[in-house]
Amino acid sequence: MKRILVWFFILSFSIAAARAQDDATQQQINKLNGQIQDLLDAQAVQAKRIDALEKEISDLRDKSGGSGTTDTANVDDLKKLADQIQEIDKKRQADRELILKEIEKLGKVSGGPASSHKSPPAISTTAVDSPAATATGPQKGYDYTIQRGDTLLAIAKAYREQGIKVTTDQILKANPGLDPKNLIVGKKIFIPAPAQ
Questions:
Q1: Residue 190: beta bridge partners?
Q2: For the whole model, what pTM was predicted?
Q3: Quick one: which of 38, 168, 173, 182 has the fewest CB in 10 Å?
Q4: What tens digit of pLDDT does each residue of 106-144 get?
Q5: Are strands 188-192 and 139-145 parallel, antiparallel or unpaired?
């Protein structure tokens, strides 16, 4: 009987221990189930946010005029455009030269004077009443008398063809008060020589 009692005691202790272990295991399972449910809820919220962002991106693409395309230019596009502009400008200058030659031919045929620019006179030191000239003293440059049909661009080009790198802006700065749209025939202007 003692043996049965010992076995009964061991069995009841084992059952009690198993129940306690089952309760602890059940609590852990319940805790894990709660954490899994929290993760699933957070995942559902994230999925909703991702869907909303995808819709917003789609709407922005539609507003910008197409999916994936932009209206901006990159550096390569700008370089290509600059090259094309330079090529067009070269063609324009060649056309201008051709037109001037044809006008000169027509002038010779009709016996009238052909229009051409005089070559620039020799470098002379001339004082100019401009802030840049008075600060540095007299500037080296050329006196030029405006002729009928002259434009600042044509004058600057004629000097550039003679190897004197001058721009219309430099001519305007050297001649304060000069109106590029109303050049007076016979008026002398100063053409600054490039700094060396």
A1: 143
A2: 0.35
A3: 182
A4: 877 765 554 454 544 444 444 444 444 444 556 788 899
A5: antiparallel
